[in-house]
Amino acid sequence: MSTEHQEYDRDGTVLESQADGGIVTQLRLEHPSLLLGPTLRRVPTVTVTPEYWTTVETGRTLVFCSVSGESFDAFETALEVDPTVTEPVLVDRYPDRRIYRVVRTDETIPIIARAASVGGRLLDLSSSRDGWLAQFHFPSRDRLISFNECCREREISVSVDHLRVSDDDDDGVVALTDKQQQLLAVAYEEGYFEVPRGISQDELAERLGVSKSAVSQRLRRAIGQLCTSTLRRM
């Protein structure tokens, strides 16, 4: 049953409400025409997190991305031949990551806009090995099905990591992934959060069989989600 209903504001105007309930889901999306799709496939050792995007007066959509990993040269080379973006620019450089600005091309499938067109709200977005890991809130199961149908029409691969019903006390954050839970559990048990630390990120990476950049990004996202959930309840 749809969770949508009508409310009245102070002036008596009828408003459509999607504020109660709904579906919160974490999806893996893969297709060569998604933003940076070819680059992510060519350089799976980096993690890309879009910071924000905006459309300027010329009609171009600028996307600013945070990139971490150990293959910046390979990433920049892949950007130059990626048909989903143009005009790549290195905006800033930090010890553990770099910030790039790209212009989205007309060949890119605007997947976030498609989700929004059926009522989906983006909660989080980061790259996975061959595509994107996206967290959405949809006002109803039917709206989620509509989004899946949109993806199917464009031959976008969609797989579900998490799916749950939202409730009145929902903080808007999807539960931690299994990999995030595993990392936090090992980090805690081995004293990563103690002073001095009982284990380094390099040792965590070796213990879990993943790259150091994967450990860094996974820790950052997991702790960020936990902080968001906790602070919103205060």
Automatic annotation (TrEMBL):
Q: Which organism is it from?
A: Natronorubrum daqingense
| Keyword Transcription regulation part of the UniProt annotation | yes
Q: Which residues form the HTH cro/C1-type domain?
A: 197-217
Q: Does the keyword Phosphoprotein apply?
A: no
Q: Name one Pfam family in it.
A: HTH_10
UniProt keyword annotations, A-Z: Plasmid, Transcription, Transcription regulation
Question: What PROSITE patterns does the annotation carry?
Answer: HTH_CROC1
Q: Per its record, how is this protein called by name?
A: Bacterio-opsin activator
User: From what superkingdom does this record's organism come?
Assistant: Archaea
